[in-house]
Protein 1
Amino acid sequence: DAKTTQPNSMESNEEEPVHLPCNHSTISGTDYIHWYRQLPSQGPEYVIHGLTSNVNNRMASLAIAEDRKSSTLILHRATLRDAAVYYCILRGDSGTYKYIFGTGTRLKVLA
Amino acid sequence: NAGVTQTPKFQVLKTGQSMTLQCAQDMNHEYMSWYRQDPGMGLRLIHYSVGAGITDQGEVPNGYNVSRSTTEDFPLRLLSAAPSQTSVYFCASSYGPIYSGNTIYFGEGSWLTVV
């Protein structure tokens, strides 16, 4: 199974950048890397995804290592509303369609 | 465009009762799945479907049944509820597989308590 490893928790001060790492050393060569976040008492929501090169959108940036064995979600200026659990997601088993959520990183933003 | 709709939002069951959690999407998505999330934990895949008539098991399928008779609906049935099934249940859908870059859309969740 493809497996992701993320730190359990991280803290950031408001208005400062946050780098959330994810290790996925068993990723298949052509699988996209996805990031979702879950605000308290809500369902997960899409943040960003990418394949090989770095990606940017209005919410965040995604930096993917050249060997694709790790990636980093970058929130350029953390706000209190960014406090959530962030999940890095891959396909669960090669050759199947299911995808597995890990335990994620709980981000705490300090005012 | 309602997205992914789950019903009911809250439910209390007695041990041994059966019930069905409903999930419907109006985005013509082929891929649908059910997750459960226990307090303070991540999401665990229960069952998933890649199209009408096709379902498969996830990580924690025991005690649950699914069927996919239409593209729009993917109900989750609890056969004989147990306290261990107290959890929040999320339904999700996507146009295609995530590994191809498709985005997953989640419902708002169904809070289930089994007493």
Protein 2
Amino acid sequence: EPEVTQTPSHQVTQMGQEVILRCVPISNHLYFYWYRQILGQKVEFLVSFYNNEISEKSEIFDDQFSVERPDGSNFTLKIRSTKLEDSAMYFCASSEGTGPLSGANVLTFGAGSRLTVL
Amino acid sequence: GQQVMQIPQYQHVQEGEDFTTYCNSSTTLSNIQWYKQRPGGHPVFLIQLVKSGEVKKQKRLTFQFGEAKKNSSLHITATQTTDVGTYFCAGNQAGTALIFGKGTTLSVSS
């Protein structure tokens, strides 16, 4: 079964450092997403990406965050200057489309990248 | 903005008992999806409901979508230890991002 793969599985960084989290979405999926989950809490939407541009972002996704699709397979999330409160599990997800009737908007999540900011 | 609320936050049951989690949205949804996250795992899609009043079943799991398309429920009959995890509802309006509820964490003792 096709998978979304994420690297690294765990990253520990010092406050103020830049972090790049990587994702390889499912190959025929067109929409890509980043969500985060602070330990024991809800899954929070950060950003969606389609056709090489951001299609929607949440209030969490401020100027410290950026996303990129540097090549035909990778989708990255960069945090420019990490803060303690950025510590969380970051999930990448992808979907075929956004139409609910065909089920194309169902998300397939990766296993996540756990970010620990010290 | 759109909010999705879910209750209860935690539920502990004895194996064999039933379990229900409820989901409410502040806005009318185009669809609602349910995901399960095992401890230490990632959300895994269970089902999607699109039509007003829709009811779907997956073995011991029954999902409902309200008539007004603003609420939903997941009912598990005769829970098993394999049902342990956090159940999230997630909904959106057409063309917008999927917003997750806070989830209901189910624990089952045998």
